[in-house]
Amino acid sequence: MNTQTSPTNPMSRLPVWSASFLIPLLLTCFALSPAARAVDPRRDGSYPNQNAAERENALYNDAMAPYSPLASWSWRRTDSLNTARADHTAMLLQDGKVLVAGGVAPTGPSTSAELYDPATRTWTATGSLHIARASHTATLLQDGMVLIAAGVGINRPLASAELYDPPRGTWTVTGKLNIAREFHTATLLQNGMVLVAAGRDSGLIVSTSAELYDPATHTWTVTGSLNTARYLHTATLLQNGMVLIAGGADQNNRGLARAELYDPASGTWVATSRLNTARNSHTATLLQNGMVLVAGGRDNNFIVSGSAELYNPASGTWTATGSLNTARQGQTATLLQNGMVLIAGGADQSNGALAGAELYDPASGTWAVVGSLNTARDSHTATLLQDGMVLVAGGFDSNSFFLATAELGHHHR
Fold it and tell me: What string of H, E and C letters represents the secondary structure of 327-392?
């Protein structure tokens, strides 16, 4: 998950507790299992003492080794979350810990937050959010604080925002957005401000609005509107400081191929080349070479896609690249330290959670199937840790049960 485009991950389906499910069309497009939303009661793979964590370190001592064709990818269970959840956010803090906040739990949108410590591989509760929310965004500010913005509360999108202070472990209410929204994006700009774009408002209308959060004044200011209303899109900060918005869904929940660029200097949007495949609930990853990899998602005919393409900021064009081995929506995408991209989990055409994982090699433009997750999941999070491992947490399993389980992935020879 790109830490500058949140967080929130594109969703493979809209949760039953959202106001979106008042729309009959969404009930058919995002159908859930009759067994949905029961809690996973177990805490698998916990480590009772520091010695256990040290033994685990020995297993992962080559996590940062460069990738080679002889290397493979493995997943191993780690301590489970204290609260089972999905559609939450996960943010790597400056001290190396991971903050998980909000999401939907068996009782509905949650205020709970917890920290994962890679040194002990354990989760501990931290201060709770003031307002329960899911499908929100989380952005790490330049001062190390975390901004949580909007999302959906009890059957309605929210305009509220909160700041997490890692040293104190507490949340403070900050300025409200001008427009309540869900399924939006939030991007940290090079000037330290946060751009929130599009999403769906309190009337469930897909929006073109955008606004800027100023950490110095704790206020939101309206900026230029997008050319195309959208939600379930992606936002990627380019190396030139501009923000690329790609795809998403329209008012009829159909995938979009339109893309546009935000210029922080002028506060305006300009259309750029269209994607080759319309899509929403996809992923977008900034590669080390400055190009953007877009993969998977659901197209304008509601078909889950395995296609992938690359955006070149220099030419403003999209080029098809190798397709995923498994079509998926609502997956996570993580840029690894070796420049490769890890795709994990997601959902298939029937909204069944997937355990499969794949690695994209920018040099060859191809995907390779790697070790599967121990638990199939979608609407989860994936966070690159400072040691090069990837922490996957929560989500829904293949029966749409809430998950508290978490696992660590890494390369080994």
Answer: CCECCEEEECCCCCEEEECCECCCCCEECCEEEEECCCCEEEEECCCCCCEECCEEEECCCCCEEE
Residue 400 maps to a domain: yes
Dihedral over Cα of 327, 368, 8, 352: its sign: positive
* CATH assignment of the domain containing 168: 2.120.10.80
**Amino acid at the residue 208:** T
Which residue type occupies 128?
A: S
Q: CB within 8 A of 385, min separation 6: which ones? A: 92, 96, 98, 118, 391
Which pairing describes strands 122-126 and 292-295: parallel, antiparallel, or unpaired? unpaired
Number of domains making up the chain: 1
Distance separating alpha carbons of residues 348 and 297, to the nearest angstrom: 10
pLDDT tens digits for range 345-382:
999 999 999 999 999 999 999 999 999 999 999 999 99
Q: For residue 73, name the pLDDT band (cuts at 50, 70, 90).
A: confident
Please check whether residue 29 lies inside any domain of the structure. no
Nearest to 74 by CA among 406, 389, 403, 404: 389
> What would the two tokens of residue 239 be?
């190396």
* Within-domain flag for 183: yes
Tell me the H-state helices in 86-135.
none
Cβ(74)–Cβ(63) under 8 Å? no
